């Protein structure tokens, strides 16, 4: 019953957002909303500031932020200005980072004991930094107005045990994306797939039909997924959730990736390459190359597919139409279609849900109470109201705060209604948050992923090892890490 209530809450959340937001691509059209968002923030934080005798002391809050959306980093100067206008005694200093060097920059600063006050990271990374004692618990610092601004479920992803370690920016679903024309040429009923899903066997046959060859040369693949660089861990994480492993640990905290189902997924990963439906060079395909291949017609289906890709494809179509040379070289008009990840082994669909956000850090030296309160003000400013509205509209991501929904109400959006319905369907069976997983176990799982799973996956994709080899290596490392009694045996 609890699971059904969680899923019902998620579905209600997404249904309620569709009419208002469904998330668009423009960061213009905000007139009439700026003051509302600012006044909301000022009201929510004024009570906290007035409780501190030094509330007007000068202070600087630092934030390390990647290009969350296409226009996000272009807004940094305005974001800093708006925050200072809201809190004249406070300065928000934003350091930009690329997605590729975000983790390295953050880890370098954390290891030096002087992390930024705020960093934009995935909620799954909280355990890693919590284990290093570098996160700031804001449970008693976040005002009731801040907390109540949020839809309940997204905020749960930023918790571990009884602690809250930041504010989420969005709740996204990792899906696949298809070229509508190619899907229909292959005879794929994509509308049915959007609503009813497909099994791996059905998916395998579909992507075979998407392959186009000229002699021995493959001109178009059925499926391409980015697996190099920062996307190295995405592929398996998305697939295994639909194979009975929605989290690294079961409810009784056994490490899940030693399940026999994990081996079957590894076999299927190799099978799609051996079929010729995916490139043999898949291990070298990074996010940029994956998207380039999709826009230039070299693949029928791409992954991981985010809602923002519909917007990106539409923008490239406009550039092609303008014929001004700004479109991706060699690209063709593409109508982007949201598709679910296939299910494996008769398991129920569990959508890979990502909740990223503004995580609050502390250094080796304990920050003052005043500075802690100021960090919370800055994190909430970034995660709500006008900033969140513009960012999430740019991403086509669902708004998860009332203040962002209010700020976005006047922003024009242009989305394929079939894609909106598809995302709603995916969110209706999103993987639930797991704040019950202890931070030490979560940190060990991340280390397992970085040091064992990702390197072995690269070797599997390159056909250097077999699925059985990878499975045994992961199992051996899991036993060493979690013990014989700490893993799934089935």
TrEMBL record:
PROSITE patterns named in the record: PROKAR_LIPOPROTEIN
Keywords: Signal, Transport
Compartments in which it is found: Cell envelope
SUPFAM superfamilies per record: Periplasmic binding protein-like II
Keyword Cytoplasm: no
Region: Disordered, residue numbers: 23-55
Top-level taxonomic group: Bacteria
Coiled coil: none
Annotated signal sequence range: 1-21
Principal location listed in the UniProt entry: other
Keyword Metal-binding on entry: no
Database matches in InterPro entries: Bact_solute-bd_prot1 (IPR050490), SBP (IPR006059)
Family of this protein: Belongs to the bacterial solute-binding protein 1 family.
Protein name as catalogued: ABC transporter substrate-binding protein
Species whose genome carries this gene: Paenibacillus motobuensis
């Amino acid at each position: 019953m609890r699971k059904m209530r969680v899923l019902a809450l998620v579905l209600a959340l997404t249904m309620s957002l569709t009419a208002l937001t469904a998330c668009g691509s423009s960061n213009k059209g905000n007139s009439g909303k700026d003051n509302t968002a600012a006044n909301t923030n000022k009201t929510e934080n004024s009570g906290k500031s007035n409780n501190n005798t030094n509330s007007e002391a000068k202070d600087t809050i630092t934030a390390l932020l990647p290009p969350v959306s296409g226009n996000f980093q272009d807004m940094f100067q305005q974001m800093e200005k708006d925050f200072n206008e809201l809190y004249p005694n406070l300065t928000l200093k934003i350091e930009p980072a690329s997605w590729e060097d975000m983790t390295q920059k953050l880890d370098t600063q954390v290891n030096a004991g002087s992390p930024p006050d705020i960093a934009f990271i995935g909620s799954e990374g909280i355990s890693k930094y919590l284990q290093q004692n570098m996160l700031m618990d804001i449970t008693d610092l976040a005002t009731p107005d801040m907390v109540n601004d949020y839809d309940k479920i997204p905020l749960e992803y930023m918790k571990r045990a009884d602690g809250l370690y930041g504010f989420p920016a969005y709740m996204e679903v990792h899906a696949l994306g298809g070229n509508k024309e190619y899907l229909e040429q292959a005879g794929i009923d994509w509308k049915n797939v959007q609503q009813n899903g497909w099994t791996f066997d059905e998916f395998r046959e579909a992507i075979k039909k998407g392959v186009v060859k000229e002699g021995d040369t493959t001109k178009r693949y059925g499926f391409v997924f980015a697996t190099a660089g920062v996307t190295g861990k995405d592929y398996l994480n998305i697939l295994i959730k639909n194979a009975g492993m929605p989290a690294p640990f079961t409810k009784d905290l056994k490490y899940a990736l030693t399940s026999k189902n994990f081996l079957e997924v590894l076999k299927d990963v190799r099978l799609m390459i051996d079929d010729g439906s995916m490139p043999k060079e898949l291990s070298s395909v990074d996010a940029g190359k994956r998207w380039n291949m999709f826009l230039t017609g070299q693949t029928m289906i791409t992954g991981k597919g985010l809602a923002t890709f519909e917007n990106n494809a539409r923008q490239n179509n406009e550039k092609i139409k303008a014929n001004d040379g700004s479109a991706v070289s060699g690209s063709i008009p593409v109508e982007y279609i949201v598709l679910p990840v296939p299910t494996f082994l008769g398991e129920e669909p569990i959508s890979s849900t990502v909740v990223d956000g503004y995580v609050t850090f502390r250094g080796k030296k304990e920050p003052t109470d005043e500075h802690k309160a100021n960090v919370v003000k800055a994190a909430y400013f970034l995660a709500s109201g006008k900033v969140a509205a513009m960012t999430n509209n740019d991403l086509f991501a669902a708004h998860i705060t009332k203040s962002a929904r209010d700020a976005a109400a006047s922003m024009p959006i242009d989305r394929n209604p079939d894609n909106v319905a598809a995302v709603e369907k995916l969110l209706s069976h999103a993987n639930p948050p797991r704040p019950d997983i202890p931070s030490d176990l979560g940190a060990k799982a991340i280390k397992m992923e970085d040091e064992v799973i990702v390197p072995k996956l690269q070797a599997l994709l390159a056909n250097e090892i077999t699925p059985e080899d990878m499975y045994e290596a992961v199992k051996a490392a899991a036993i060493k890490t979690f013990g014989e009694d700490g893993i799934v045996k089935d």
